[in-house]
From TrEMBL:
Protein name: SDR family oxidoreductase
Top-level taxonomic group: Bacteria
Organism per entry: Micromonospora cathayae
Xref: CDD domains: SDR_c
Pfam families found in the cross-reference section: adh_short_C2
Gene3D superfamilies from the UniProt entry: NAD(P)-binding Rossmann-like Domain
InterPro entries named among the record's database cross-references: NAD(P)-bd_dom_sf (IPR036291), Sc_DH/Rdtase_CS (IPR020904), SDR_fam (IPR002347)
Record family assignment: Belongs to the short-chain dehydrogenases/reductases (SDR) family.
């Protein structure tokens, strides 16, 4: 059992991106100590108790990062935001012939990374009492092909991972869920567009959704944190949070 004076901690992977940063702020507002992992340093104004440079596509998490996480307090929630499209995959014209290296890199970033963070942190969650959870960031692309088969397959793989681990983790009273987000207005989305030689028109993309706009990073973060910390009965589920975008795509 964890002493009540020990800080309750949440780990946010991908803390340096727009969605990850918004998740950090929301979890901090909820009163938890926040630890961030990412391959690039976060912005200076993020409410992090600590940050560690961690590449979750590698086979192991550095011991320094795990020691730092354990020292921050009782780990209660892990929100895994790491992921994203690969520009080389998006450039492919023959989607049945995506190069093996590109496919592997995309799966590593979006699926293997989730397995790595779970394997590295599960004993810390087991050592904590009360509600605990993993929340994985998926995409509506998991439900259909939209020009990136590796990305879609990896996100769908997260759903299989959730289904496979929900029962075993429940024996330790640990929840696991995924949130399938729709298109979100992020700097990384704009960056990918520019690498492909075009400017992203979020207004045009949003106009094709039922509500007429894409998600903001804070809306995406609201969905992730609600599943992570506000729904103790929710486990083994994929929650679609895309403002109805999947309805328009169908």
């Amino acid at each position: 059992m964890i002493d009540g004076s020990v800080p309750r901690t949440a780990l946010v992977t991908g803390c340096s991106g727009d969605i990850g940063a918004a998740v950090c702020r929301r979890i901090d507002d909820a009163g938890y100590t926040v630890v961030g992992w990412d391959v690039v340093p976060p912005r200076a104004d993020l409410p992090l108790s600590s940050y560690q440079p961690v590449d979750l596509t590698a086979a192991e998490v550095p011991e320094t990062a795990l020691h730092d996480l354990a020292a921050a307090g009782a780990l209660q929630y892990v929100v895994h935001v790491v992921g994203g499209s690969d520009v080389e995959e998006l450039r492919q014209t023959d989607l049945a012939r995506v190069p093996a290296g590109v496919f592997e890199r995309t799966v590593a970033l979006n699926l293997f990374s989730a397995h790595t963070v779970i394997r590295a942190t599960v004993d810390l969650l087991r050592a904590t009492d009360g509600d605990r959870s993993y929340t994985l960031t998926s995409s509506t692309n998991a439900f259909g092909g939209y020009g990136a088969p590796g990305y879609s397959a990896a996100k769908a793989g997260l759903h299989g991972l959730v289904a496979a681990l929900a029962g075993p983790l429940a024996r330790d009273r640990i929840r696991i869920n995924a949130v399938a987000l729709g298109t979100t207005r992020t700097a990384n989305y704009v960056r990918l567009g520019r690498l492909m030689g075009r400017e992203t028109d979020f207004d045009s993309i949003g106009s094709r959704t039922p509500r007429g706009s894409v998600l903001s990073p804070d809306e995406a973060a609201a969905a992730l944190t609600a599943v992570a910390i506000a729904n103790p009965a929710l486990s083994g589920e994929v929650v679609v949070a895309d403002a109805g975008q999947h309805l328009a795509r169908r």
